[in-house]
């Protein structure tokens, strides 16, 4: 029995590596929902705001970047382009996408994205929503797409469902991408209890539509020193 322990440990290590790689697909591979996705149920970050020391007023650009702690106050600020909040040079910022999807101001952010969308983004949103709704009507009618809005490089979805499982919505997105020939490349999704309907879950998705952003980047974890004996 002792001789099997190294083998078992090796298999577990291989499985762990496989899960990590699934978040970062190759650029040449097609974008199935499971290939570049992350399901994050983290708590909403605390609310704070960098200050402009010259005027004493809150300035979302004072620190040179927007972080999760200041996000809730800049989601509707026209001085910060929506995509800057969750895209870096080559990947989706996973911590920021997670914070946006969990934010109590998500609906206001969706309204802003809809208002600032150009014609191409509006058309893409209409195609995705129609295709996802059609698939869900035929496959899982208990699921409903409540909102879908797009920027030039990404889309956001809010849906209602009887369960917190996001798998059916991922399948609906994949079916919509096939039906509309509109590929997606990275996906972040969260589920939380519906604000007004007991026993119902709210699902929020953020996915990219530009192959430049086909990975999800998470900030490095800060190491914690062990307590001294």
UniProtKB/TrEMBL annotation:
This is Uncharacterized protein. It comes from the Bacteria. Residues 34-46 have a biased composition (Low complexity). Residues 51-61 have a biased composition (Polar residues). Residues 28-68 are annotated as: Disordered.
